[in-house]
Amino acid sequence: AVVSTQSTGDLLISLFQKLYGSADNEAIPRMNNFTDFPQYFLQQDFMRAIGSVKDQAGMTTRKIVNFLSTQLHYNDNQSNEYDDSYLIVAIIDGLTSTIPLKVDT
Asked: pLDDT averaged over consecutive 10-residue blocks of the chain (105 residues)?
């Protein structure tokens, strides 16, 4: 389902940053720790939900694209004992959802 209000995107990003953002800079995700599996799955769902937010014209804002790109760029799994492949896929799913479905020719 396509959500059509930008305030929804801002709210989702803000909530994600409070839950998963670094203490030093909420815009950058903290190091992965998947010992709490429900939180891990919620983190993946956030990526897909944020990528699905569209404006009235069916477009994704630059803020959402930048947010998802930042999550992919700064994803840090060095100290995590669990594989982060599914999180990376969820971020990429979110990013691919930002691509417009139709192109005017």
From this structure: 67 96 93 95 97 90 96 96 97 95 65
